[in-house]
């Protein structure tokens, strides 16, 4: 496939807004999804993910804005005129047709030897060759989901939309299907746009994650980038857990800014958005915080904070999770990997904590629109 034709199949949303009566479900959304990428729309219930997907599928018409695939404006095209297919959480298989016929149906009832070959290839891709003559009711939930996927992929849409497709599966099956879906996407090389409220699911599968909140995209990027450098408190809290400590920028030193947190000055990586005197939050992930005995010599360079008290200890196998109350009254979360080389700290014990300055992030209060 040449680069020009790859570009001609990418998905673009420009200033897309959807209002239901006076309620704005999706607000001026801009999105560019390159062809062949795995894109996740992540956000809490009601943030507008499904509405966005339904507008791309043609099941909902935008109040304003345009949707394009390559140069073709599909904003008002009928669903069947779009090079787009959708897999829903409810698989919507035909109960009276067997697996083979369900998948062949995706080819819009064309009958030929060619159809049989394509169906067999697709069933091989989703590893269901041996189930071809079973009816949907004879399959497990995970197998039914694969049939739905095969049926949606068989006419090679430019964009495959997946609306919480794993939502009905139990956790273990869900995790294995996530890996499976990613493998299939890589093999077929088509664009997948996946809607989920499960941050782990989005991060496991997607090349790019867009975090949605109240109809707008708060931040978009590679999973690791979003996790390491959240821009808003919403993103910091929605993707994993964060300790957020109120602070004020009091100076700059090379690549770091100095932030006064309740009278303790720490260093945080500099970011263009930060100005002297600016108020916001210092964010640090629980697994990046070290807990140490009072006065213990910590040789790593870092922000050292004294005067903590352990208020909770939870042993969870791979890690131990502590709550440490700091002198200003806030309880910080600390996740320590269990290597077996250290003793556990106990409830009520006095401790110091520290973290490397480069692991922290600074959230400017003005960046939080919500
Ligand atoms: P969930 O994960 O719960 O499916 P979501 O992020 O997909 O949530 P949407 O289904 O897109 O959210 O809904 C966004 C908002 O728009 C919600 O507040 C919802 O109540 C509202 N909404 C959706 N469809 C309609 C409709 N047809 N009429 C009126 N309001 C609607």
Write the layout of secondary structure elements.
Blueprint lengths: L2 H5 L3 E10 L2 E11 L4 E5 L6 H9 L6 E6 L2 E2 L10 E4 L11 H7 L7 H13 L15 H13 L5 E5 L7 H18 L2 E6 L2 H7 L2 E6 L2 E6 L1 H6 L4 H6 L4 E11 L2 E6 L2 E6 L9 E6 L5 E4 L9 E13 L3 E7 L5 E7 L12 E6 L5 E4 L6
Parallel strand pairs: 3-8, 3-9, 6-7, 7-8
Antiparallel strand pairs: 1-2, 1-4, 4-5, 9-10, 11-12, 11-14, 12-13, 14-20, 15-19, 16-17, 16-19, 17-18
Helix pairs in contact: 3-5, 4-5
The structure holds adenosine-5'-triphosphate.
The CATH architecture category of the largest domain equals 3-Layer(aba) Sandwich
Strand content: 35-45%
Largest sheet: 6 strands, mixed
Alpha-carbon distance between the two ends: 43 Å
Helix content: 10-25%
Apparent shape: elongated
The CATH class assignment of the largest domain is: Alpha Beta
Task: From the 3D structure, determine the CATH topology of the largest domain.
Answer: Rossmann fold
Strand numbers in spatial order across the main sheet: 6-7-8-3-9-10
* Number of helices, where a helix is a run of at least 4 consecutive DSSP H or I residues: 9
Bound small molecules, which ones?
adenosine-5'-triphosphate
**Overall number of strands:** 20
How many domain modules? 2
- The overall pLDDT, averaged over residues, is 90
Instruction: Tell me the series of helices and strands, N- to C-terminal.
Output: HEEEHEEEHHHEHEHEEHHEEEEEEEEEE
Question: Considering the protein shown, what is the CATH homologous superfamily of the largest domain?
Answer: P-loop containing nucleotide triphosphate hydrolases
Radius of gyration: 25 Å
Structural class, please?
alpha+beta
Low-pLDDT ranges = none
GO molecular function, one term: transmembrane transporter activity
Organism: Nocardioides pocheonensis
Domain ABC transporter: 11-239
Keywords: ATP-binding, Nucleotide-binding, Transport
């Amino acid at each position: 496939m040449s680069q020009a034709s790859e570009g001609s199949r990418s998905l673009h949303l420009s200033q897309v807004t959807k209002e239901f009566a006076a309620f704005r479900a999706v607000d001026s959304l801009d999105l560019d999804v390159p062809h062949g990428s795995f894109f996740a729309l992540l956000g809490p219930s009601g943030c507008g993910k499904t509405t966005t997907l339904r507008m791309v599928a043609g099941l909902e018409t935008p109040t304003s804005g345009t949707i394009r695939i390559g140069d073709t404006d599909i904003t008002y095209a009928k669903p069947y005129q779009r090079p787009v297919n959708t897999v829903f959480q409810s698989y919507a298989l035909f109960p009276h047709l067997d697996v083979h016929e369900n998948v062949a149906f995706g080819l819009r009832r064309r009958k030929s030897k060619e159809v049989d070959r394509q169906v067999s290839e697709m069933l091989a891709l989703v590893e269901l060759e041996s189930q071809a003559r079973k009816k949907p009711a004879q399959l497990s939930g995970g197998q039914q989901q694969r049939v739905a996927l095969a049926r949606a992929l068989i006419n090679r849409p430019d964009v495959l939309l997946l609306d919480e497709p794993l939502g009905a599966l139990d956790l273990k099956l869900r995790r294995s299907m996530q890996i499976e879906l990613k493998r299939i996407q890589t093999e077929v090389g088509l664009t997948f746009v996946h809607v989920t409220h499960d941050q782990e699911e989005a991060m496991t599968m997607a090349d790019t994650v867009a975090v949605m909140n109240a109809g707008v995209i708060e931040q978009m990027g590679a999973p690791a980038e979003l996790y390491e450098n959240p821009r808003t408190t919403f993103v910091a809290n929605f993707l994993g857990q964060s300790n957020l400590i109120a602070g004020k920028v009091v100076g700059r030193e090379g690549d770091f800014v100095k932030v006064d947190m309740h009278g303790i000055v720490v260093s945080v990586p500099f970011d263009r958005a930060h100005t002297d005197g600016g108020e916001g939050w210092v964010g640090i992930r629980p697994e990046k915080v070290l807990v140490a005995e009072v006065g213990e010599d910590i040789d790593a360079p870092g922000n050292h904070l004294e005067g903590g008290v352990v208020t909770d200890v939870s042993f969870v196998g791979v890690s131990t999770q502590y709550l440490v109350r700091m002198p200003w009254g806030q309880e910080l979360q600390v996740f320590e990997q269990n290597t077996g080389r250290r003793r556990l700290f106990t409830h009520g014990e006095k401790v110091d904590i520290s973290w490397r300055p480069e692991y922290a992030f600074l959230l400017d209060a003005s960046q939080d629109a919500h």
